Amino acid sequence: MSTRPSKQLETFPNPAPERDYLIHMEIPEFTCLCPRTGQPDFATLLLDYVPDRLCVELKSLKLYIWSYRDEGAFHEAVTNRILDDLVAATKPRYMRLRARFYVRGGIFTTVEAEHRKKGWKPVAPVPLPEFEKGLSTRG
């Protein structure tokens, strides 16, 4: 195997630091272990951030997410730890991580955590008409 899980998050310079723009990532293959039973927990992670000077490099993010596969962690703890690590690496203007865990014992769990850079205020969005729904290839 040429790659291995890693806690090392790499970054690269923001190509447009003069403006606020949103980066959205969907990570549908997150796994960790239940700290009580050792059974796997599965989640889709939704990451939204407004970068400042740095962006997270995607392969390092993939390897970082993979590093949780054999670790026991409560949903709340792992969501906040991932957010803390991403904030430490990129120092964004804004970041939100939503972890949507699959059903376990008849319960779906969603944990959402946010970071805002001190003094940062988002620019008001321009209201635009929406495109017709159902035309996306991703549904």
Automatic annotation (TrEMBL):
GO terms (BP aspect): tRNA queuosine(34) biosynthetic process
Subcellular localization(s) per the UniProt record: Cytoplasm
GO molecular function: preQ1 synthase activity
One Pfam family from the record: QueF
InterPro entries linked: GTP-CH-I_C/QueF, NADPH_dep_7-cyano-7-deazaG_red, QueF, QueF_type1
Active site residues per record: 34, 41
Pathway where it operates: tRNA modification; tRNA-queuosine biosynthesis
Group of enzyme by EC: oxidoreductase
Catalytic activity: 7-aminomethyl-7-carbaguanine + 2 NADP(+) = 7-cyano-7-carbaguanine + 2 NADPH + 3 H(+)
EC number: 1.7.1.13
Binding site for substrate: 56-58, 75-76
Gene Ontology cellular-component annotations: cytoplasm
Keywords: Cytoplasm, NADP, Oxidoreductase, Queuosine biosynthesis
Superkingdom of source: Bacteria
Role played: Catalyzes the NADPH-dependent reduction of 7-cyano-7-deazaguanine (preQ0) to 7-aminomethyl-7-deazaguanine (preQ1).
NCBIfam families (alphabetical): QueF-II
Family: Belongs to the GTP cyclohydrolase I family. QueF type 1 subfamily.
Descriptive protein name: NADPH-dependent 7-cyano-7-deazaguanine reductase
Species of origin: Pelomicrobium methylotrophicum
High-level lineage: Bacteria, Pseudomonadati, Pseudomonadota, Hydrogenophilia, Hydrogenophilia incertae sedis
